Amino acid sequence: MPELKREGVRLFYHVWGTEGPGVVLVHGLGSCGEDWPFQVERWQRHYRLVAPDLRGHGQSAPIRAPVTVADFADDVAAIVQAADVAPAHVVGLSLGGMVAQELALRHPELVRSLVLVNTFCRLRVRGWRDRRRIWARTLALRLLPMSFVARSTARRLFPQPEDAELYRAAVERLRGNDRRSIWLAWQAIRHHDTCDRLEHVRVPTLVVHGEEDTTVSYVDCQVLAQRIPGAQLKTIPNSGHATPLDAPNRFNMAVEEFWKRVETEAAGGVSAS
Q: Who contacts 26 (Cβ-Cβ below 8 Å, separation ≥6)?
C-alpha cells in the first residue's frame, strides 16, 4: 500500500489497475479508501484507480489539530501527483464530495471531471429538525462511545433488512475510528463552504443524489448542481446516503455513462459542461 508524507503527516492510499484513465475515489466521514468494493471490482479493468485514506481515517495518520476540507484536498492533490494519474476523474462521497469540490477549485489541473455524491456546498440549517439533527450528531461524536456512534450511523446508512451485511461492515469500520480525528473532521464539514466559488469549477460535473438519503437532501444536491456551470443532476431511486454501496449497479452505470459523454465530447472538441 503506497504512502507519502505531506507536511509531516503520513498518508496512505490504495491503487488498483495498471492502465487507462486515472480515477480518484474519495470516501466519506469515518470510512476509508477500501470502501469502494463494487467500483473497484468493475472499474479496475479499464481505469487506474487511486483511493486515498484521508488523514484521520484508515491507515493514514490521526488528526491532532484543527483541519479544513481544503487541507484534505491538498492531501489528495499530493497523492494524485505521487500516483501520476492526473488529470483524473474524481468521485467523492459526502465528505469526499466536499474534498473533490476543493480539489477542483484549488488544483484544477489535476481534475478531468467530478462526480459529487450525496454532498453539499454548505451545511444548511433550514429549521428545528436540522438544528436538532446537527446538535445530536455533534453531541454524540463528542461524548458517546464510538461503538454507539458506529451502530447509530450504520443504521441510518443501511436501514433495510437486505442491507444487513453492509450494516455489519459499516459498524466494524466506524467503531475502529479514532474519536478525536472524527470529531475534528466533523468540524471541518461544519465549516465547509464552497457555494460562492463553485462558478469557477471548469470541469464536467455529475451530481448524484440517493432518493432516500436522510443525511443530505435533494435540495442540497440541487443547489450544488445549479452553482456549478453545466453540471448534471442524477437521482438514484431506492438509495440512501451510501449510494455506491447500496445501489452499486445503477450508480456505476450512471457514472460510466457520464464518463463516456465526457470523453466523447472532449474528443469531438465539444465541452461536456
A: 51, 52, 54, 76, 90, 91, 92, 93, 95, 96, 97, 99, 100
Check pLDDT > 60 for residue 271.
no
On whether residue 204 sits in a domain, the answer given is yes
Report yes or no: 206 and 232 within 8 Å, Cβ to Cβ.
yes
Using a 10 angstrom Cβ sphere, with 0-12 exposed, 13-18 middle and 19 or more buried, the burial of residue 10 is middle
Q: Which among 48, 95, 51 is positioned nearest to 189, based on CA atoms?
A: 95
Model confidence pLDDT, tens digit, residues 238-259: 999 999 999 999 999 999 999 9
In a domain, 150, yes or no: no
- Domain coverage including residue 79: 3-125+193-267
Q: How far apart are alpha carbons 96 and 115 in whole angstroms?
A: 10
Residue with cell 440512501: 240
Residue 28's CATH number: 3.40.50.1820
Q: How many domains does the chain have?
A: 1
H or E stretch covering 100:
helix 95-106
Residue 203 lies in a domain: yes
Q: Are 139 and 130 in contact (CB under 8 A)?
A: no
Closest to 155 measured CA to CA, from 221, 131, 142, 140:
140
Name which of 106, 114, 97, 83 is nearest 27 in CA terms: 97
pTM of the predicted structure, to 2 decimals:
0.94
